[in-house]
Amino acid sequence: MQVYLDNNATTMCDPLVVEAMLPYFSEQYGNPSSIHKFGSSVHPALMKAIDQVYKAINASDADDIVFTSCATESNNWVLQSVFTDYVVNGDKNHIVTTEVEHPSVLSTCKFLEDQGVKVTYLPVNDQGVVEAHTVKSFITDKTALVSIMWASNETGMINPIKEIGEICKEKGVLFHSDGVQAVGKIPVDLQDVYLDFLSFSAHKFHGPKGVGGLYIRESQALTPLLHGGDQMGGRRSGTLNVPYIVGMGKAIELATTNIEEKMSMIAEKRDRLEDALLKLSDTFTVGDRKNRTPNTVLISIRGVEGEGMLWDLNNGQIGASTGSACASEDLEANTVMLAIGADNELAHTGIRLSLSRFTTDAEIDYTISHFKGAVERLRAISSSFAKQQPTKGGEAQACEMH
Amino acid sequence: MAKADMLGESLWDAYSDKVTTLMNNPQHQGELFQGEVEKRGHKLIVADFGAESCGDAVRLYWEIDPATDKIVDSKFKSFGCGTAIASSDVMTELCIGKTVQEAVKITNIDVELALRDTPDVPAVPPQKMHCSVMAYDVIKKAAGLYMGVDAESFEEEIIVCECARVSLGTLQEVIKLNDLHTIEEITDYTKAGGFCKSCIKPGGHEAREYYLVDILADTRKEMDEEKMKAAADAQAAGGGNFEEMTLVQQIKAVDAIIDENVRQFLIMDGGDMEIIDIKKNDEYIDIYIRYLGACNGCASSATGTLYAIESTLKEKLSSNIRVLPI
User: Which ipTM score applies to this complex?
Assistant: First the structure.
């Protein structure tokens, strides 16, 4: 058996989605911008996809949803163009975000800091959640934008987006949310929640890779990131990726139809997995389940280094994820684990398991059994569980230089 | 960028079969206990290096026969990834049967070599070389405990890059000798900075005492100062003494004059020059030069430019100079 439990990284493209996409490669391949029938014949399919996406997040026709290549593009677009429109060509100079955003937000913020923007990186609480009152206290009259992820890719924890939206509205500050881990996983209703911009990506909800979107409230101005042939009403140039947009429409419809029912089915399996793993000694999981995306669990296993654990899981044909890797230049201690204030050593022992609606009970059973075996083997090797104490003077200092 | 770099390597695919095998089934993992070791009349040394909070930790056990200083048995415990466990296992293997004095000579490079499947293919990707460094560190620590000396005393020189074991002195020498300008060049020449990259600049996997960026900047500064001093000496010495200088002094003096008066114009036109040799030829001093870049073959290289170079050197150093491009 092989088990894929890394659905926060990417998901399997639903075969129904692939089926919906297929006619738009070799049969109806026209460029929708062309005036001849080859071009116009794809319009109904695109219109359907547009309707599916608007409906899924309950956007109004006065709003814009612009198709992009991915959420990284959407996030870059918002941050860089808010900089252009409100900092370079305006009197603002400040952005508020969090320490635990996706790199496409954090790296872009660092880039903007180099251009002279002040960026506040808010901490999260011990639940891994940014608190609305914290956001409020850091907004100044120079703040152009607040950018806060809807749900965390690492922990699945859901931020109080509605509350933050109200604060931003009241303060007259633009509010962007990276909704990559929320759209298709939990209800997203843009008539209920006040946001100016929302990024999302199809491959996180069983759509194809390479297509995403940006919701823009009430068609408000935002300088384009990509200039060119003025597609998408001039908001984002580039020939429309017809099969992928059709695929995203189908995928978002499948993911959000009866979403509460799907959520409880996934959560039931996740809870069973989580409960079983927590029976192992010296383990803990991050965040209250009630406020977490239903598919995610981040578990820390004392004495077992994350990458070593992934190795053993991989040997058992289980794909999982860790934010840490020993001695790697770019994979440092899990920043989220550090941010939630877990002891430093626990930051290297986090394993993230993320399910999907395709995860089966048999897969959960298999994972529980293999996971326990891996923990047992690695703890038997681990210095953290050794009994013979070091010779006097042979104790390690915490993090000495090598 | 190479095509493969566009995708980035798959970390685990870069591990040798030996690393994979030992990670899955380490041969020497386990513990040695005080009571049992003493019963055999031997001495137990247990040393820790690293900590869970750093992301990797290793505990090394040595059972030593005090009569011979020989390590008769060794075990390890490790908190770490696959390469950390495999490195610890091989380190333990290498220690068994050696005296403490011999064991302390085992370096991380020996550990990495022992993990290779074939002699010329690295056992681990560059960023994992760091794991084997821990093996070296914990051996030094254990040896220090047994011999009652500080672990640092086994290190004769300041090691800047632990992964490739390159010392400060070597780096300074190589930069000067080969006129290196970039970190990439330093890595090409010495391998320093080619592995875990911690030693390149602050902010890497671990904090270091010395960084390549600083060493390069300091050494370049030193080189510039030497050059300026040579130029000053040459000018102070005046034309007459140029003929009495040693060849090295002559080259330095010529180089300094070129740097100060000529090179900037050549570089502006996309070219440069280098001194090939200086020879005494009866009453003349012949300076052989080679044009580089755009100067090579340009129209004025045999006329105006050459005249400018020769007349400057004649004026500043000696009227007997002839400049011969080759």
Answer: 0.87
